[in-house]
Amino acid sequence: MKVCKSCSHTVENNANRCTFCGGKLAEITDKNTPVYLISATGFEADRIVAALEDSGIPCFKKSKVISNHPNPMGMENGLCEVMVPYSAFDDALTVCRGIGAGVSEAEMAEEIPVSEEEAEAMPEQEEEMSESKKRVVRILSAIAFIIIVALVIYGTDFITGWIKGLFS
């Protein structure tokens, strides 16, 4: 595994340049080399650091300013990059996935093993609609919307006419 000298991202051994910033790569020789884990702002960064520390994984935040505008709340404007030693990288990723940090719901669903009984109980995944079906659904939805609006207008007109008739 290699680490980028400028952004500290880990990269596969066969890469010549960092795939994130294009920087020069160096072989990881020391297992305590700090490597990039995840970027987060404010509370999320604190939550990730707390979870890592609770798991006994050493880490630190490195501020990355993305705006020069002053913040009225006195907080940092920008991202914090959470860094961990290379030796703890895999464990730190597991902790982040465990708390749902930096992982989409789809990725989390892929990570959770499902037994055969649970798989049978789950509903079937629906297929993606073709473009022609999507177009028909959009047209029918627009027509239904127009009909509903017309019914509301005519219904309101009918009710107000009926109420006027009561007082005439």
Describe what this molecule looks like in 3D.
The chain has helices spanning 42-54, 89-99, 105-111, 116-121, 131-166; strands spanning 2-4, 10-11, 25-27, 34-40, 60-65, 78-85. With 168 residues, the protein is α+β, with helices and mostly antiparallel strands. Strands 2-1-3 form a three-stranded antiparallel beta sheet, with no helix packed on it. It has a three-stranded antiparallel beta sheet with strand order 4-6-5, covered by helices on one side. The protein is elongated, with a radius of gyration of 28 Å.
Please give the structural blueprint.
Elements: E1 2-4, E2 10-11, E3 25-27, E4 34-40, H1 42-54, E5 60-65, E6 78-85, H2 89-99, H3 105-111, H4 116-121, H5 131-166
Antiparallel strand pairs: 1-2, 1-3, 4-6, 5-6
Q: What keyword list fits this structure?
A:
168 residues; alpha+beta; three-stranded antiparallel sheet; 6 strands; 43% helix; 17% strand; elongated
- Structural class computed from helices and strand pairing: alpha+beta
Computed Rg: 28 Å
Major β-sheet strand ordering:
2-1-3
Q: Describe the biggest sheet?
A: 3 strands, antiparallel
Give the integer mean of the pLDDT values: 80
Q: Specify the oligomeric state.
A: single chain
H/E element string?
A: EEEEHEEHHHH
Q: State the helicity in percent bands.
A: 40-55%
CA distance, first residue to last residue: 88 Å
- The helix count comes to 5
Count of extended strands: 6
Shape: elongated
Provide the β-strand percentage band.
15-25%
Spans of at least 5 consecutive residues whose pLDDT stays below 50 are 72-76, 104-111
